[in-house]
Amino acid sequence: MTDDQAKRLKEMRTFIEPFRVEPGRRVRLAKDFDPGYHADFVKKQDAEETLQRGVRLLAEYQARLAAQDTYALLVIFQAMDAAGKDGTIRHVMSGVNPQGVEVTSFKVPSAEEMDHDYLWRAAKRLPARGMIGIFNRSYYEEVLVVRVHPQILAGQKLPPKAKGRDVWERRFREINDWERYLVDNGIRIVKLFLNVSRAEQKERFLARVDDPERNWKFSAADIRERQYWDAYQKAFAEMLSATSTEWAPWHVIPADRKWFMRIAAGAVILDAIIDLDPKFPVASEEARTEMFKARDELLAEG
Ligand code: AMP
Ligand code: MG
């Protein structure tokens, strides 16, 4: 790493530090995290260039991750509707080799999925070594939408004991344990909560109605879900408090300015993959000797 790169890396780490949820901290979303925050030293007019630099670096590190074939990176996105999950994924991953990434969007569970434990469908989509896996929503919906709407839990085919009052505490523990197992086995986990304000969500819903090209994104159900805003904020705060761990911490990304959200989310992902420090495998002396022999044969063909 050159001095200049080391300086940039240090700056990036300072930049993302305020977004990290300290493990064990009790999060009060409205007080602790401002959806409109933007660091003064990150200027909107430089945003595109900054993002592209990050995108290029991510592509470079992904190539090493694939060649090393030891670690995987799992990036989880959770947010309220219209916070910008899709756009952020599109922009941040735009430079990465498509063969190295798998994106999964988790919807309302299917009949087959309902016949399994709640981590089953996520386990099936975990990234293989060398891959980047993106979860657009995830098993965290099991302590979010399912918590906000008790009838969803009531409809799950669980044994009665697993629906008891301690269900959320238990799910937090199960998720933490499972993530620890994944990290121990080489899957690095990045968890991003895109934190949009209620006012900005309203603006984005209105834009979806007004702009014909965005109509497809609009659903009247999203507006109904907005009535549960406070219940969601509470569920998110409890999720962040209980499941930000040393091995898989949450980052709360300010989401009211799209350009800032993309840079911030990209920086957290980049930091994680740089921290893994994946390296191209170095060929052994024997392998090198073999290679040179093969090269001599090739050249002898004339
Ligand atoms: P979208 O991401 O807009 O396509 O919507 C997907 C929908 O699936 C959202 O309303 C989620 O709340 C819902 N969803 C995702 N996972 C679950 C789950 N485990 N249980 C119930 N609903 C879910
Ligand atoms: Mg939706």
Structure characteristics:
alpha/beta, binds adenosine monophosphate, 14 helices, 5-stranded parallel sheet, 51% helix, binds magnesium ion
Description:
- The chain has 14 helices and 5 strands.
- Helix 1 (3-16) packs across helix 13 (258-276).
- With 302 residues, it is α/β, with parallel strands linked by helices.
- The longest helix has 22 residues, at 47-68.
- A 5-stranded parallel beta sheet has the order 2-3-1-4-5, sandwiched between helices.
- The mean pLDDT is 96.
- It has helices spanning 3-16, 29-32, 47-68, 85-92, 111-114, 120-124, 145-148, 150-155, 167-184, 198-210, 220-226, 229-243, 258-276, 285-300; strands at residues 72-79, 101-105, 132-136, 187-195, 250-254.
- Bound molecules: adenosine monophosphate and magnesium ion.
Q: What's the arrangement of secondary structure elements?
A:
Elements: H1 3-16, H2 29-32, H3 47-68, E1 72-79, H4 85-92, E2 101-105, H5 111-114, H6 120-124, E3 132-136, H7 145-148, H8 150-155, H9 167-184, E4 187-195, H10 198-210, H11 220-226, H12 229-243, E5 250-254, H13 258-276, H14 285-300
Parallel strand pairs: 1-3, 1-4, 2-3, 4-5
The structure holds adenosine monophosphate and magnesium ion.
Quick recap:
This protein is α/β, with parallel strands linked by helices and 302 residues long. The protein contains 14 helices and five strands. Helices cover 51% and strands 11% of the residues.
